[in-house]
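Title: Prediction job returns without error message
Component: structure pipeline
Severity: low
Priority: P3
Assignee: unassigned

Description:
Job completed but the reporter wants confirmation the result is attached to the right record. Sequence as submitted:
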Amino acid sequence: MAKAALIPPVTKAGAKYIPNQGSTGFPVEIPGLVLASASPRRLDLLRQIGLIPGVVDPADVDETPKKGELPLPHAQRLAEEKARAVAARHPGRFILAADTVVACGRRILPKAEDERTARKCIELLSGRRHRVHGGLVLLAPDGKLHARAVTTVVTFKRLDHGEIEAYIASGEWHGKAGGYAIQGLAAALVRQLNGSYTNVVGLPLYETATLLKGVGLHGN
């Protein structure tokens, strides 16, 4: 018999309902949890610690930074906005949302959607230390907000022109904050990392597990 797909067809409002994996196996479904994210990386990271949200329902929010907004507050605000945008569609459930921001000093780097943007990001990060800020929110059914902020310091090696062009040619940067994916080819560009690795990928797992445990969400 064929195994159920991880994510079945999309239902109304764009929500995806995840099949139960059974009470004796891992990962374990948490029916009362909604992941407010379109990122397959965040779902994969939850699976890594043996958890699957009952529903995946991406939030549609404007991610444009406000005037004078600093990187960490920006990540925190977007995580909360994502959670609140989805909550009305899922009464009685906990909403888990996150946002990842790559920053050089006070400068927020964009998500790279074209080669020009990706190249500018990688050239800026080359040979420099930068910070990856993660905003994490768990919104309870009663409206109580549980929030965490995580910052990881990442240092890139100094890249020559050929290395930069080879990474751009890979296309891995597409849609990634700061123009790179540390879980992929860009791992070879990172000279040093201080803090949560999974925060850079997209979801700080220690903080996520702690939040979920704190409200009694352990799966079946």
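Comment from assignee: result matches the submitted record. Residues 12-214 form a domain with the Maf protein fold (CATH 3.90.950.10).
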